[in-house]
């Protein structure tokens, strides 16, 4: 795996935001003993949820950059997949390990499975639920 990198995303919980940040800082210190840890993107790039709610749907689509350079929240990914958010996914989300021929076989298998439409509907319902959070 030399010369290869992977991105992971961790979420820290605490009784307060400062406690969660403290847990995060300690984890970063510990991880730096084993591997380089790049700095987090500046917080100024993040819009608050209140700011996002105040925007109209058209403003939301215009406010989103063409290519996001940082990781995305579950809610933003759900909005993207439901067609409510326009963006090009960053390279971290473009990793795809199936060989091209296997994709067609996988699609055929899915479409021939009688339970697949119900599965797709369940995924759509879960995405809608994530959007409500």
Mean pLDDT: 72
Q: Which range does the strand content fall in? A: under 5%
Order of helices and strands: HHHHHH
For the termini, the CA-CA separation is: 38 Å
SSE diagram, text form:
Elements: H1 17-31, H2 49-54, H3 57-63, H4 74-81, H5 100-112, H6 116-132
Task: Give a nutshell description of this structure.
Helices cover 50% and strands 0% of the residues. With 133 residues, it is an all-alpha fold.
Output the keywords.
133 residues, mainly alpha, 50% helix, 0% strand
Describe this structure as you would to a colleague:
The termini are far apart. This protein is mainly α. Helix 4 crosses helix 6 (116-132). Residues 43-53 and 58-66 have low confidence and may be disordered. Among the domains are: 1-40, no CATH class; 100-132, no CATH class. The protein has helices at residues 17-31, 49-54, 57-63, 74-81, 100-112, 116-132. The protein is built from 6 helices and no strands. Residues 47-56 have a biased composition (Low complexity). InterPro entries: REC114L.
